[in-house]
Automatic annotation (TrEMBL):
Organism field: Micromonospora tarensis
TM annotation in the entry: 29-47, 72-94, 115-134, 146-168, 200-224
Sorted UniProt keywords: Membrane, Transmembrane, Transmembrane helix
Pfam name, any one: Oxidored_molyb
Protein name, as recorded: Molybdopterin-dependent oxidoreductase
Keyword Membrane: yes
InterPro entries in the record: Mopterin_OxRdtase_euk, OxRdtase_Mopterin-bd_dom, OxRdtase_Mopterin-bd_sf
Amino acid sequence: MIRRPGFPVPEDFTAPSHAPLVAARLGRWLGVAFGLCFVTGLLSHYLQHPPGWFTWPTRPVNLYRLTQGTHVLSGVAAIPLLLAKLWSVYPRLFVRPPVRQPIRLCAHALERTSVLILVCAAFFELVTGLFNVAQSYPWGFFFPAAHYAVAWLAVGGLLLHVAVKLPIARVALSPPSRREKTVEAAATARDDRDASGRRAFLRTSAGVAGIAVLGTAGVTVPWLRRVSPLAWRSASGPQGIPINRTAAAARIAVPQDWRLEILWPGGRETLSLAELAALPQRTANLPIACVEGWSAAARWTGVPVVELLRWAGAPTGRPVRISSLETIGRYATSTLPAAHAGDPLTLLALRINGEELSPDHGYPCRLIAPSRPGVLQTKWVTRLEVPR
């Protein structure tokens, strides 16, 4: 290789942490983390913005809690793994492009393009994701839409990068041949040092990723809350359950003559809070699972939506549009799919853990449905509407 004075080449970096085997193993771990994060994030996006073909089951009731917790925690694990991977491969930045060999030059450009797309998209996803769990948005774009779009860029860059690097990774991860073992035997001491250094770096990277996950997993795994000092939500909050948006922030003023309105093609019914409370009630243990990854279970008591529709004489087996007293914002209304609207555990809740709902939890009544994002569990409900 021709080198220019003062310019390093990859061979100048001899630390074991820069070995191809280290980069290949970190890449495999990072691929698993990115894959989990992408698939579970895609599910969450489709739940909030469902295309016509998408359906989501109501059972098990903790399904969304599991998938969204996996989404956030795999993203947390990916941060130290990505940094370790970049450290292991950064000497490759000093490879000179083979300008006199067009085919190799094209391959080199393809590799660099895949790396640029992947790294930029990955950092965007991880950094904005961290801001999202902190509910801080110091930018002008709508986070869910941007996060979704860039996720596809990250996956495209990852697949392109894997296609380019697969032959190298396959060689690095394969066991050494008999000839390679003979060569290695001649330099046993150096090889032992390198192998020890590689193992130490990989163990440190895996350990840091594990500590990051353990330190934050309490947001979604209740029995880990005591050992998760970095968890951004806990069991604290009004009536023992965290909230994202208070009644004051939503500018909620419940009118003294509040009545729940039920609309359907050709019919209308209204109920006061006392009349709603007089209907047969059901109690269910259901989680609030938010897109930021935190979740908490509570005991909810209220009227099953399907029974309320039957009482009013409205048709069932259809989606139901839920409207809130909160008239501003993207989530002032939500649409309950037919499967959830017909599930007897989908409640118009009046009580939480045996207490009347506080204003911050949605007084006078709120929606609580199994296996749904918390952002779609509409609070301060004022209307149910069954479309044609």
